[in-house]
Design a protein that fits this description.
11 strands
Length: about 350
């Protein structure tokens, strides 16, 4: 099997959907087709019909393909490109075609039918250029990041793609590692994040990390520490806005009542959750509860007005980190007050 072509991550070809240029002969054939109106000096309709009857028969125009025929043809073309390696990935392994046509299609039923995600404020994400989306993290398993990725992909007016920063554990797990790379995720380090932001990408980060996703159910919707402000320093260096994001609904999908720390250390996990259904019900216990989600993107916080050396100012980083955290926490409380039920 041929290898996929690797392109620079900041190459416009990785995002633009351009139609292939029409060949010169094809363009000429299109111009030669008769128009719907009669040209001056042509014979009367009856005479023209008689001339057509006497002359050679014109080639019949094939009827337009039905919807299923177009889908079948598109699917076969997609499979042919995958088999022959005629597709592109960027330097981080992001495969836009696979993400759009396969991975998003697999996540969309979970997003639309199971969690019934409601999106607010997606227009606050810039239509072009880089931006850093900072969100709360919860739910025992990182489904909130995936649902946020679908929200940006499906609802942003400019059809933008979200590149998530993930923990190193994601990239050592078999299968998960490959899927994460294909979906555009990359290691949560300042160097990778800054390169993506400078190239004009939308980057998502959840500063709470494992402290947020693995916190007990009794501490739900209480934000944990946001680290030392590394994401703020990255945004300042790249000169991109910070967009706070608040996610309600993920906390209840796996109510974490306990943590088997010994088993977690043996398996090399940061925690091993004990929920009302897992591990007591076996694989069935891994099914998340069908909670109702809301994802709200807040007003962007600009950083381009600061001097380049501002990224080294610890007090500024602390203040901006606290501002982002407080905005996310305040929005969480507001959404919780507005929520009618966990499931509806």
């Amino acid at each position: 099997m041929a290898d996929a072509k690797v392109i620079p991550f900041d190459d416009d070809r990785s995002r633009a959907r351009r139609r292939p240029a029409r060949a010169e002969g094809e363009a000429a054939a299109v111009r030669a087709l008769p128009g719907p109106k009669e040209a001056p000096g042509e014979p009367e309709p009856g005479a023209r019909g008689a001339a057509r009857a006497e002359g050679p028969q014109e080639a019949a125009v094939p009827p337009p393909a039905s919807g299923w025929e177009r889908r079948l043809a598109g699917g076969l073309a997609f499979l042919r490109r995958r088999v022959t390696g005629a597709y592109e990935v960027d330097e981080f392994g992001y495969d836009e075609e696979l993400t759009d046509q396969v991975l998003m299609s697999l996540l969309r039923p979970l997003y639309e039918k199971y969690f019934r995600v409601e999106v607010k404020g997606v227009e606050n994400i810039p239509a072009e250029g880089g931006a850093l989306i900072v969100a709360n993290h919860s739910g025992t398993l990182p489904l909130d990041g995936l649902m946020m990725q679908v929200a940006v992909h499906d609802h942003h007016p400019a059809g933008r793609h979200l590149r998530l920063l993930a923990a190193d554990l994601v990239f050592v797990l078999p299968v998960v590692n490959e899927l994460a790379r294909k979906a555009g995720h990359t290691l949560a380090c300042a160097e990778d994040a800054e390169r993506l932001l400078r190239s004009g990408e939308i980057v998502g980060v959840m500063p709470e990390g494992f402290k947020g996703i693995g916190k007990p159910f009794g501490e739900r919707y209480k934000l944990q520490r946001f680290g030392r402000g590394g994401f703020v320093s990255t945004a300042l260096r790249a000169g991109v806005p910070i967009v706070p994001c608040s996610i309600v609904g993920a906390e209840e999908i796996y109510p974490m009542l306990g943590n088997a720390r010994t088993l977690a250390r043996v398996l090399g996990f940061p925690y091993f959750p004990l929920t009302p259904t897992f591990p007591w019900l076996g694989p069935l216990g891994a099914l998340p509860l069908p909670t109702k989600w809301t994802i709200q993107f807040g007003e962007p916080i600009p950083t381009d007005s600061y001097a380049p050396e501002a990224a080294e100012d610890p007090m500024l980083m602390f203040n901006l980190t606290d501002q982002v955290r407080e905005q996310i926490q305040h929005t969480l409380y507001k959404l919780l007050v507005q929520r009618r039920s966990v499931f509806f």
